[in-house]
Specification:
Elements (H helix, E strand, L loop, with lengths): L17 E5 L3 H13 L3 E5 L2 H10 L4 E5 L7 H9 L6 E6 L3 H9 L4 E5 L3 H15 L13 E3 L2 E4 L4 E4 L2 E2 L4 H11 L8 H9 L9 H14 L9 E4 L3 E4 L3
Parallel strand pairs: 1-2, 1-3, 3-4, 4-5
Antiparallel strand pairs: 6-7, 7-8, 8-9, 10-11
Length: about 250
């Protein structure tokens, strides 16, 4: 399928943002593309997983709306391969009530999920919120120098980057937001609902507390040397999670 671009950009948050739609249903692609172009986004689309990967690695975008069930390569495989090289925000489209796909999508590195059939207003709200909060874009990141230093972990809010032992961590947009929540409130215990309210309140209409556990487990795997004996993120059993305050 040829790349289709919206040459007319409107003022506002969607200015210059490029979104990839990946779905094997042409009618869904057509409807989403029309709606998002009306919002001022530049939109490209792919009908299968292989096409999506080829397009993304040839010319990256700012956000991907990715269906789980795809020909050639499914959405989980596409998500995993992209995560090996990029932290671009990814929203998975899952079958309504398909909890396993929701969790698996997050395990493979997705930032969020939307069940089908979806409300187009919710899709637009999720996209705007994630783009606004993630700060992800293709150009080089800001060189702002402010840093939060905790043990061997350095967090750069302006650049939306974090390093451990001097090596940059490959964090998704959601993982970085979670890390920022913790490092700016060391010692504060958050239950799952509080984490959802802090990070998902703008775009989530139905809350699933299990997604919090998945994101925290993924973040722990990236910043803890031994997840069985954490140095940074601790569990207060029966209550919630908290970040080291020393």
């Amino acid at each position: 399928m040829p790349v289709q671009k919206n040459l007319h950009q409107t003022e506002g948050e969607s200015m210059s943002k490029r979104i990839m739609l990946v779905d094997d249903e042409p009618l869904i692609l057509k409807g989403l593309q029309y709606t998002l172009e009306q919002e001022g986004y530049e939109v490209i689309s792919a009908l299968d997983g292989e096409e999506a990967l080829n397009m993304f690695f040839a010319d990256p975008c700012d956000l991907i709306l990715l269906d789980v069930m795809l020909p050639k390569l499914d959405g989980m495989q596409v998500c995993q391969k992209i995560r090996e090289r990029s932290n671009v925000p990814i929203i998975m489209l899952t079958a309504k009530g398909d909890d396993m796909n929701k969790i698996l999508g997050l395990e493979y590195g997705a930032d969020d999920y939307i069940p089908k059939p979806f409300n187009i207003l919710e899709v637009k709200a999720r996209i705007k919120a994630i783009l606004r909060r993630s700060g992800y874009s293709n150009p080089a990141p800001s060189k702002e120098s402010h840093v939060i230093h905790i043990k061997d972990l350095d967090v750069y809010p302006g650049k939306r980057q974090a390093t451990l032992y001097g090596e940059e961590l490959k964090l998704t947009a959601r993982e970085f937001e979670l890390l920022m929540l913790f490092v700016t409130h060391p010692g504060k215990v958050y239950n799952r609902e509080e984490v959802l309210d802090a990070l998902w309140s703008e775009e989530r209409t139905e809350k699933d507390v299990r997604t919090v556990d998945v994101h925290i487990r993924r973040l722990r795997e990236k910043i803890e040397t031994d997840t069985a004996h954490p140095e940074y993120i601790f569990t207060k059993w029966g209550v919630g999670y908290y970040f080291t305050d020393h």
